[in-house]
């Protein structure tokens, strides 16, 4: 991703609400926007070699 691995790790430390797609901290129990309780982790985008 970027030049700074620490910053990259920090950007990925979020949960995404499955209902409204809001970003929430890792320790969230409910979505900050809609109150939904189901989350997914933020997806990791990796660079492809050869492009």
Helix content: 10-25%
Beta-strand share of residues: 15-25%
Number of strands: 3
Largest sheet: 3 strands, antiparallel
Order of helices and strands: HEEE
Widest β-sheet, arrangement of strands: 2-1-3
Q: Kindly report how far apart the N and C termini lie.
A: 14 Å
Radius of gyration: 13 Å
Silhouette: elongated
Low-confidence stretches: none
Helix count, DSSP H or I runs of 4 or more residues: 1
Structural class call reads alpha+beta
Mean pLDDT: 85
User: Quaternary arrangement of the chains shown?
Assistant: single chain
Give a written overview of the molecule.
- The chain has one helix and three strands.
- The chain is an alpha+beta fold.
- It has a domain at 14-41.
- A three-stranded antiparallel sheet has the order 2-1-3, with no helix packed on it.
- It is elongated, with a radius of gyration of 13 Å.
Short description:
The chain is an alpha+beta fold. It has a domain at 14-41. It is 14% helix and 20% strand.
Which features would summarize this protein structure in a list?
alpha+beta; 3 strands; elongated
Can you lay out the helices and strands and say which pair or pack?
Layout: H1 5-11, E1 14-17, E2 23-25, E3 39-41
Antiparallel strand pairs: 1-2, 1-3
